[in-house]
Design a protein that fits this description.
4-stranded antiparallel beta sheet; alpha+beta; single chain
């Protein structure tokens, strides 16, 4: 006996596969949503944690900035105190500088050289005088450059020929000169004396006179 199935089995199978696909699709979407939600929550947690860390770092940075400002103020006060201390030490050590200056002028002036004016501006000394010849001026420059620890870097400003009347009949040709020289402070002079070569170690070579 032959049995014939008259039910629409193909339609039923197709519907069953469609239902299974829909269920799988829904399950996949649901799983994807759960995973995406978990990832979102994890990222939000990381962001929140990082924001908290940033707030803590910001607070600490503000504290450090305040400390840096305090340190800068302290450093300025220390520098001001050092400057005052150095000024006091310079005043104490420089009390005898005029004495040393006059003593060195007496020592270093060659025979035949006479000073007519001496002016001091801070550590710069301007000398004006009369010499019997240009050679005497050159000798004075060499003395100031090499023979004293208190004076350094002599510079010839000008030298002009002139006449001096010793008597109505006796006219002498002389050299009127102007030069500058730097006077060292006491501590600088001590360093110059302690350096190899003594006074000449801190002195520059005397400049040559015009035409010499």
């Amino acid at each position: 006996m032959i049995l014939i199935n008259l039910l629409p089995h193909r339609e039923a199978a197709r519907k069953k596969r469609h239902d299974i696909f829909n269920v799988s699709l829904f399950a996949s979407a649901l799983a994807g949503g759960v995973v995406a939600g978990l990832i979102f929550l994890w990222l939000q947690g990381q962001i929140s944690f990082q924001q908290d860390q940033n707030k803590i770092l910001g607070t600490e940075i503000k504290k450090l900035d305040e400390q840096i400002k305090d340190i800068a103020v302290l450093e300025q006060e220390i520098e001001a105190l050092r400057a005052r201390q150095q000024a006091v030490e310079n005043l104490q050590s420089d009390r005898n500088l005029p004495v040393h200056l006059l003593a060195e002028m007496v020592k270093q002036l060659p025979e035949g050289v006479y000073l007519t004016n001496l002016k001091q501006d801070n550590q710069t000394i301007t000398l004006q005088g009369v010499a019997q010849s240009n050679e005497r001026v050159a000798e004075l420059l060499r003395n100031l450059a090499n023979n004293t620890p208190w004076l350094t870097k002599p510079q010839l400003v000008e030298i002009v020929a002139g006449n001096v009347a010793l008597s109505p009949r006796d006219q002498r040709l002389v050299a009127n000169f102007t030069l500058r020289v730097n006077q060292l402070r006491s501590n600088e002079a001590q360093k110059a004396q302690a350096a190899p070569g003594g006074a000449s170690a801190a002195s520059a070579p005397a400049p040559a006179l015009p035409g010499k």
